[in-house]
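Question thread 4412

I'm putting together a teaching handout and wanted feedback from people who do this every day. The idea is simple: show students a protein as raw sequence, then show them the structure tokens that encode its fold, then repeat with a second protein so they can compare. Below is the first pair exactly as I plan to print it.
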Amino acid sequence: MVHKMTYDAAIDGKDIRKNGIFFIIDALRYDIFADPEAARALAPNICVLADQGVVRRAVANAPATQFVLPSLVSQTYPLDYGGYNFGISTRPRSYAEQLQELGYSTQMMASCTALGITHGYERGFDGLHTAQDCRLILAHFLERNLAYEIERWQSGKISDAEAIEIISAPMEDLLTTVARVTEGGRGRIWPQKLRAINELVALRCSSELDLLQREPLIVLKKINSIPPILYWRYLGKVRPGPSYIWYRLKEAIRWRTVNLLAKFEFPFLPLLHFETKAHEIMDGVCEFVRNSEGPWSIHLHLMDVHDFRSVARPMHVVQRLRYLPRWLKARARGQTDRRFGYDSALMFLDQEFGKLLTTLRETCGLNKVVVLVTGDHAYHDAGSPRPKQNIAFRTHFEDIDIPMILFGADRVISDTGMIDSMGMNATYLEALDIPAHESFKGRSAFTDGRDAIISESAGSGNSDIENKDLYFTVSTDEYRMMSVLKGSELSVFKLYDRSEDPKELNNIVDDPDKAQIIKTFIGYIERERGEILSLRGYSSTTLT
């Protein structure tokens, strides 16, 4: 039911509320926009918004898409409500539901696989126009969620019956949803090749669902024995056939090749999944804008920048060479120290974003739209002063410092306090005059923000907040502290003075003069994440 508007939003019966675009560029780093002139050299269309709006540095609440999405769309911490395993399925409210309840047409247009299936991110959206490779959705689900439970079963920590009870329901939910993924309008923007892939996987998921209901233990054994990326090939089969040896060999070679290339920082990687590029999503966005009167809100999440090293679509990689002269010029001027692959992916995305700006000017007009551009996290692969870290430790500036570009807000933002991922969403809603839900924890850029930001995760895989090591990084403008909760003990292992050491290379955690800083930051974790600490039996006396 649409609530009666509590503010004057109509003149002569016409709705005058602004439209909105919440634009997440996956892996977008703040350092791109730290220097306006340098940013214009690479992303002139996004800078149209930056030059007429506001740019602020922000800090992501986690260093990976799967971890941080709940913060971006439900204004809750990544480890709230049992963790991020199933997205926002158990969280009270999504920001889209707030918009939908007040009469906005809400649309999700994305190439982000993590937004896909059984994670609840479709809540509150009238239209789902998402392009994800269902093979990857299945692989991620098995690897990130179920593999942890399978390992517990194999090690004897849980019985056959317990494993079946834990795994069957989410697996059934996944298979049922993928089997229906071609229904409705979700696949309207799919490229032809992606459609063929997803239709095949959807058909096979129906067979696997039958097998799961008849013989759940067989499915558990398959999950344990077949690499997640290959699992789609054997959906519905009791056991792999002779072809399995060949595919397993190919995957072993590919996996080792990827790891070797990544180790030597080779600019390109052979990934298996099909990637939908910005132009294939943006065409659908422009079509919607041209044919809609509003008020509408678009959740736009594009993966081009994150996937900059992939050669799954080789012609696209070749076409990005057109940006090399402009990038070399920027490089010579000291306007970028990032890799060409990363910057060229951004330049391509920016070119496509320019088409949306043109469409907005020709239809509703730029003065009638609020746009917030940000990243879900930053990205070490674009360039980092340190070797690649395990994902649990990727909370340096190149991992979590992201931009907030806000355009079209009819109010002045504050220049004090810190902004996090939850605050991005809070800012977007407040710019559209949408009230916050009682469960939302975000503090918008129109307030004084936060004293410090917590970035958190349970490391790779399952987010078992009761048993796994939990990682908390606390950031202010002056300092960044990294800590880990092992059992009931919280240990601080890194501290950086960001004002003196902006690249975060000098760990000063053992400096006795910084003991009060560490104590203050621990106090922030205790206040903000006290529920989790209590669950683990933590007390301040156990600090090591």
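The second pair follows. I'd like the answer to focus on this one:
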Amino acid sequence: MSEQMADNIVRIFDTTLRDGEQSPGASMTVEQKVVIARQLEKLGVDVIEAGFAASSEGDFESVARVCKEVKRPRVLSLARSQEGDITRALKAVEHAKNPGIHVFIATSDIHLKHKLRMSREQVLEAAVKAVSFAKKHMDYIEFSAEDASRSDPDFLIQVFKEVIRAGAKTINVPDTTGYAIPSEFGALMANLIERTAGGDRVTWSAHCHNDLGLAVANSLAAVHNGARQIECTINGIGERAGNTSLEEVVMALRTRKNYLDLDTGITTEQIYPTSRLVSQVTGIPVAINKPIVGDNAFAHEAGIHQDGVLKHKQTYEIMTPESVGITGNRLVMGKHSGRHAFDERLKHLGFNLSKDDMNRAFLRFKELADKKKNVYDEDIEAIVGEEILRVPGQPDRYELLYLNVNSSSDGIPAATIKMRVNGQEKMDYASGDGAVDACYKVITKITASQSQLVRYTVSAITGGTDAQGEVSCIIEDSGFRVSGQGAHTDIIMASALAYINALNKLEGRKHYRQLVEREGP
């Protein structure tokens, strides 16, 4: 990997596998780290910090495996300024195509006094000794001054001058505790670059934490003032409040290139898939309102916004969802949605209604939107089915009349159900793996349904042991996917009601298709 990069290109150093894994609950297996490393290479990151080889056998193995798996990015192992750590790190990266070592030591007086119990002179000596030792075995050395944002700038300049002389190629300035303010951090970076002897021969890097929610802003301030590497993680995971979010800082540089005149080598269309992979592996969900990759990042509910974005996307979108790997924006239907968005959603669902029918459906939609937070496609389909497609006075095709379930630790769960189907009463019995399974098997027998259960979820509406439970299910048949809801203090009853509700909606969709095929839309 060539270290020569255009002056307006910012190198992306990803530390998801090291600092990101330090996020509580984010531990990853070796195999999971390898899978993520492959995706990081596909994403186009320049550097992968694969772990802290000296910290455990597992970390050593994961660094070694990642080194063998990826070809283009530089792969680093973190090491304290100790010979043992560096030796272990060197061993871990020996099979990398582009290996490197990342050496660090704290430089702030608070860390020197309370953590290291060392003087400034001792820290300077340890830093130079560590870089010199690593340089004997490895060409690429990055040096970090931990807690740089709370360190004396004059001491930082002294340390950086000496480690550059010892052979460091990248100098990292961490805001380890997320303490810095953007204007302050940018000024610090500019000061260090200008006053450090040999600073023009190295790449300057920023590693910012998000304790005050300023990690991305501080990183942008750093590159605006001369840094050309940003250290970050996917989804911003990491210690405490996390690290600089890769997706946010990359898209900020891409979107505001007109102001910063900087860019990265990231394949931005791989951002969303990478975000989802890391979320799945770590079990850490992405907040719905997270910039770039959150569910609401390209969602619009307000009627004015929906109308504007339908007419011209740039009215409310400064980047396209496709640019980060999302298939398109999403209009969230709710009480703030307007007639234009509702009509577009109807057409998207295949309903080309007359003006009068659309107005009737819109009034029902508004009534429903006042009662629930989000109105889903299945709700809209149900509105059309109930208000537009159903013959006036015609009841649901399926109606639950009676339910009895037997279940014990020693016996096989079984259910007996009586239903009204097209006005005729039918009763049947079935056993299953559980009470709900038995129930659904009986309903399937009675209705002769060919649908497949796609999803089944249960949530409590109220608290306490007598809480009313709400069941939602999604079924699929003949190219249609519909949802059903049921609420009851008995969760088995709620499950049956939800399934029957979905079956009735399915019949409505099938009826509409037949109507269109016969008479046209």
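Top answer:
Good format. For the second protein you could add a caption like this: The two ends are 59 Å apart (CA to CA). The CA atoms of residues 451 and 478 lie 8 Å apart.
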